[in-house]
C-alpha cells in the first residue's frame, strides 16, 4: 500500500515498534474558504469580528489510484466524503509542552 502525504508537514507515526515518517509529497490538498462579516462582539472593550465561514471545493486532491491512501487534513476529508481513500492522522502524540509531534496511526474519517 502506498501512502501519499497531502499535508504541508512530515507526519511521524509513533508505534510500539518504532517511528515511521511520511514526508510531505509537495502537493497540499486544501478546501476553499469564503468568509463574510457576521458583526462584532465586544470583549473587554475590544470589538472582536465575527465571521460566517463557508467551505467549498477541494483543490489539489489527486484522483484515486490503486493501492494508494492519501493523508489529508480532517477538513479536506470532511469536504470529500465521497472518497474512501482519504485518511487523517489519529490518536495524536504530544510532547511535554502539548505540541503535536506525531500520531499513533491513521484513521478513515466518519
What does this structure look like?
This protein is mostly beta strands. It is built from one helix and eight strands. The protein has one helix spanning 74-79; strands at 2-5, 11-15, 18-22, 30-43, 46-59, 68-71, 86-94, 100-107. The strands form three sheets. It has a four-stranded mixed beta sheet with strand order 1-6-7-8, with no helix packed on it. A hairpin with a 5-residue loop joins β7 and β8. The longest helix is centred in the last third of the chain and has 6 residues, at 74-79. The protein is flat.
List keywords for this structure.
two-stranded antiparallel ribbon; 110 residues; flat; 1 helix; 8 strands; mainly beta; four-stranded mixed sheet
* Overall 3D form: flat
> How many beta-strand runs?
8
Radius of gyration: 17 Å
Order of helices and strands: EEEEEEHEE
Q: SS-based structural class?
A: mainly beta
Flag low-confidence runs.
Answer: none
Provide the spatial order of strands within the biggest beta sheet: 1-6-7-8
Largest sheet: 4 strands, mixed
Provide the fold topology.
Blueprint: E1 2-5, E2 11-15, E3 18-22, E4 30-43, E5 46-59, E6 68-71, H1 74-79, E7 86-94, E8 100-107
Parallel strand pairs: 1-6, 6-7
Antiparallel strand pairs: 2-3, 4-5, 7-8
Amino acid at each position: 500500500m502506498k501512502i501519499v502525504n497531502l499535508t504541508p508537514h512530515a507526519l511521524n507515526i509513533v508505534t510500539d515498534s518504532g517511528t515511521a515518517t511520511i514526508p510531505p509529497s509537495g502537493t497540499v490538498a486544501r478546501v476553499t474558504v469564503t468568509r463574510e462579516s457576521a458583526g462584532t462582539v465586544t470583549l473587554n472593550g475590544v470589538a472582536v469580528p465575527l465571521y460566517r465561514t463557508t467551505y467549498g471545493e477541494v483543490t489539489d486532491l489527486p484522483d484515486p489510484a490503486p493501492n494508494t491512501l492519501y493523508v489529508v487534513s480532517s477538513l479536506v476529508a470532511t469536504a470529500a466524503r465521497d472518497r474512501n481513500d482519504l485518511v487523517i492522522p489519529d490518536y495524536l502524540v504530544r510532547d511535554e509542552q502539548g505540541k503535536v509531534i506525531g500520531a499513533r496511526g491513521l484513521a478513515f474519517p466518519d
